[in-house]
Amino acid sequence: MSSPKGSQAQKTRLPSFTRKVPLEVPSPTEKDWSKDDEEDYVFKDPDEELDSLPQPYRMINKLVNLLFDRSWEVIEERDALRKSELSRIRPTVYPPVVESKLNKMPNCMAISQDYVFIGGARGFSIHSLFNAKQIYVWEKLKVDVTSICATDLGSEILIAPVDEIGIVRLFYLYKDGLCLIKAINEVEDTSKQSTCLKMEISQGGDFAAFFLQGAGDIWLDVYKLPKESWLKEVEHPQLSINPKKKVRQLQLNTLDAMTSDNLEMDISFRGDVKLSLPVHIMKIKPPKPVTGTTFKSPLEVFAKIEDCYGLGSGQNHFIRESQWEQQAAVFNASYKKYLDGEWEEEPLSMATFHFLPPGCITATPVDVKSPSGVAYVLGVHWTGSHNFFLYLLNRTLKDKLDPEGVWPCAAPIAVSQLSCSSSYLVLACEDGVLTLWDLAEGFPLGVVALPEGCICQSIHFLKYFLVHEGRNVFPEGPVKSQMKCVVLCTDASLHLVAAQGSEAPTISVLVERPVNHLDEAVCAVAPVPALPGMVLIFSRDGHVHLMDVAKPHIICAFAPPRPYHLAVPWKPMFVVSFHHPCFLLRGDHPDEIKSTDDAKNIQNSLFYFNFEAYPLLENISRNCSIPQSALTANMGFPHELPLEKRCESFLQKSEEAEADSGQTARSQSSTHSDGAGLEHSRAGPKPESLTWAHSAPASPASTGRAALVAQRGKTRRVCERLADGMEGISSGKNAGCTTACHTLSFKYKKKIICTSMLVCVNNFQGLTRSC
C-alpha cells in the first residue's frame, strides 16, 4: 500500500497539460469546438522546470548571459565586415617609384622648384626631387627642426626652418650657394626669448609675417624682405663684415659646412656673403576686449574715428559699463543651468593671416606704387573674433597702427584660406557658414552653409577644372570668378564647394561621416595640382587614396612597400609638388618604431610617387588641358564664352522661340479660318466687311521679316526702357551707357545689337558696384 506522500510524488512526476488561456465552459456540441484547441495547451515536463536562483547567483547568471550576447554581436559584426570586405571592389594599389634612405628621422618636408628640403636632427638637408639624391646637409643646431617653409623667388629660393625652441631663420639659396640671412627672433638673453608659433611668406617673397609668443604676450611681426638687394649682393659679394650683426650670428656664419663622407656636394655654404636684413614694418597685437565706453557724447565717438579706419571693429562705441553688466546678468540668469558646470581654460588666442594682392576690394592708394602681383595688404583674424582686419603694408614702425578695413562676420571666424593664385578667399565661421570672396573682381561669390552639425576643419583650393567629354581638363585661358574647393569637417566628412560668377554656390558631399568603420575616417586632404579634379585622401587606417571629385569615386591607392607603413596615420608626413606630378611620403619600419634606444642606427625611408609612372594616371597627367578655342566652339560651356557671344546666343534663341510661337499661332489661325470659311460658304455670299484677313496664305519671306521686325521692336523697347531708367543716374564713366542704349534703339544688325548690349551691361555692372 503506497503512502500518500509517495502517490503525491508520482503525481508530480507525471506529464501535465497546462492551458494558456483562461478556462471556460465548452459548448455541448462537438461541432462548435475549436479546431485549434490543441494549440492552446503546452506540454510541460516537471523535471525540466527551472527554479529561480537566489542571489548572488541570479546576478552572475545575468552577467554571463549578457557576456554571451555581446560576444555573439561582435562575432556577427566581424562576420558582416568580413563579407563586406570580400565583396568590396578594392582600388589598384601602386608602390613608390623611388625609395630614399635617410640616416635620421625626418620631421618636416617642403618642395620648391626641383629641390626637397627635409628638416630633422640639428638642421635640414637638401635633396633632388627627381632622383632623391642628397645634395647638401646643414647641421649646425643643437636641437631639431620641427617645421620648414620654402618659397620660390624665381631663380632663388627662400628657406625658413623653425627649431624646437621656436627660433626661425631665413636662408637664401641662389644657384650653388646657401646663405644665412638672419635669425628672426634669436636674442642673447634666453629669458627674453620668444617662440615662433606660425609664419607666412607672401607669394613672390616680398613680405613675411611671424606669429610670436613670449613673456606672457603674443603678437604678429611683419617684415619687408629686400629680395632685389639680396640678388645684387649674392652676384657681387661684399667681403666686409656688417658691424650691426650680432657676434653670435657671425660665429654661426663662419662655421664650416658639415658634409657627409663620400657625398658629392653641388651646393656650398657661403658664410662670407653678408645680405641685407629684413625691415621690420609692423607689430600687431590682439584686439582689446570690448568694454564700457569712456566717451561722454556721441560726437567724441565720431571724432575718434579718422578716415573710417577701424570702423566695424567695435572698439569705438557708446555703450556704458553698466549696460554690459546688465546684459551679462540677464544672460547668466537665463542660462544658469548650462553655466553651473566646470569651465575649461580658454585656449590661447591664435592669429591666422594672409597676404592679399591689389584688387577691387582692397584698392591700392594713389600714393602707393606697388608692382603687379605684389601683396600690399595683410588680412588677420584672431581666435574667437568676428572681424577680419585689413592692414596696409606700405608703412613703418613709426606709423600709427590702425586697420584700414574691417570685415565683420555674423559668427566667430574658425578657418580662413587664400587660394594659390591669391584671387579667392574663403572665410568659414563657427556656425558652419562659408563666405566666398573674389578678391580680383571685388565682390563675394556667395554664401553657403555646411550640413547641420558640420564644422569646418580645413579648406583646400582646387585648380579650376571642367568636365569635357567625360574627363577633367584645365582650361588654358584665364579663369575669372570661378573657383572650387574641398572642405574637411571635424566629423571627417568631405564636401565640394563650387562657385561661378553670379550663380549661387553649390555644395556636394564627397565622403560621408563614418558611422560603423571609424578607422576609415578622413584625417588629411591634399589637392593634386598636376591632375585636374584630383585630391589625395589620407585615412586613419593608414590608407592613401586618389579621388576624382567630379564623379566622385576612388581612382587608385598608394602604399609604401611592406613592411613599411605610416607610424602616425592620423597625422601623416607628406608633401605634394605644385609644378611636378609627384608627391613624397614618409614610411616607417616596424622595427624602427620599437627600437627607440638605438636611434642612430635606424634607417628611415622617404618614398617618391610619380603619377606619370602609373598606367591609370599617365594619360590624365599628360592630356589635362584644353585650349580656349575648343571651349568657345562648344556651347556646353556658356560661362567660358565672351559676353558678346552670350548675347548673340541669347538673341538667336529668342528669335527661334519667337518664330516657333508665331508658326504655332498661324497654324491655329489657319485651322480656325478654314472652318469659319466653310460655314460662311454654306450660309451664302458674305458681304465685303466679313472678308477674312488671313484668307490669303503669307509667304515664308514675309513671315520671317515680320518676326525679325517684331524681335527688333521688342529689343528696341527694352533698351529704351533701360536707357530711360539710367538717364537720371548715369554720370562720369557710366554716361556712355545711355548713348549705347539709344544707339541700340536705331540699329538692327545683330552684331551691333550685341555690342551695344555688352557696353550697356558692363557699364550697369560697374555702376552697381560703385553704388
From TrEMBL:
It comes from the Eukaryota. Residues 1-15, 661-673 have a biased composition (Polar residues). Residues 1-39, 654-709 are annotated as: Disordered. One of its GO terms (biological process) is electron transport chain. It holds the Pfam family WDR93. This is WD repeat domain 93. It comes from Equus caballus. The gene is WDR93.
